[in-house]
TrEMBL record:
It holds the Pfam family Amidohydro_3. Residues 60-404 form the Amidohydrolase domain. This is Amidohydrolase. The lineage of its organism: Bacteria, Bacillati, Bacillota, Bacilli, Bacillales. It comes from Paenibacillus chondroitinus.
Amino acid sequence: MSSSYWLTNVRLESGYLYENGVISGTETEICHLRIEGGVINEIVTADKPLETDLPKQDGKNLLLLPSFIEKHVHLDKTLIGDTWRAVTPVANIMGRFEVEKRILPSLPTSTQERAENLLATLLSAGSTEVRTHVDIYPEAGLHNLEAVQKALDTYEGKLSYEIVAFPQHGLLRSGSKELVRAALREGATLIGGVDPAMVDGDVEASLQQMMELAVEANAGVDLHLHDPDYLGTFTMRRLAALTMEAGLQGRVAISHAFALGEVPAGEAADLSAILAEAGITIITSAPHSRTLPPVPLLHEKGVAVAAGCDNIFDTWQPFGNGDILERAGRLAERFRWIDELSLSQSLGFITGGKTPLDRDGKRAWPNVGDEASVVLVEATSTAEAVARRAERKAVFYRGTLVAGGLQP
């Protein structure tokens, strides 16, 4: 496709519809977008003939949404492309580590092949930005990082990405400090960690070592935190303090953070204010089987919240389809966001905060100058797209069609 063209006949949201003072639906209009150099350079309504010598790509009156962000996935763990297997039961997380270390190296498919398969799945579902955690531990060395980097290289120009150097078996417990340091030198852009109390056995030492590595490499942080209730909230408070001390505000995330939903509302509210001050993002996979962090409260307190699919058919879970829009819908189900406004605004959890309309019904996206990373879906509104997990017809990354297609 030409670097300059018109994406014609796309459906844009223009405002909310009201009935007796209550939002009852969403109003849309058909528009044409001029794409140039991967950016939206012009937006015009389709009520007049378009006179242009530029190529045209017909959007078929499909709804235009910002493309999605997959904020938490493990490209190196997936079994996609390999034969079916259910999960082997184990007694605890330590047992899960051992199963994974035994199975993954024995597979006939390579880590790179499986990662590429998962990237294709994510892209077809509308995700053009991916944050992947990559296991770093002595037995694997930097193999997983190297394989994932090769997989990502095959998708150059189709998506953007971040790589988290993730000491899955505990930064302290597995003695992986030097390996993580090497991973940060070799292209990882964030450092991860896991359960400073229950896996590493020393909250302070684990967090201190993680933050020291982050400061040394000028890297962000994304901590897996499954530790429950007050043990988990204690860890979060300490991480927030260390984040402020290190000057890493806005560059730290806590994935899962189940503890926020396991303590009284007052404790969660107090901690939310601390997290907001430290600029810490909470990332949830919206699992069916755990208490979720209180997303509405976090949002109210100014804490950034994002979603990720996490495990997608691996030695930890046999489930998962790589569809982050499905996770947004699951969040809506869990928190009973069933009206037009709350459903439409829930899209922001998988787009970095972008929604076509703001809460007042004014167009917030797209605007001239925005990156042309978009998804065309079969839906009448964002609310319908989230609630019904609308079919993705075409995915564009910086103006280039990267998944799906629009037939003439």
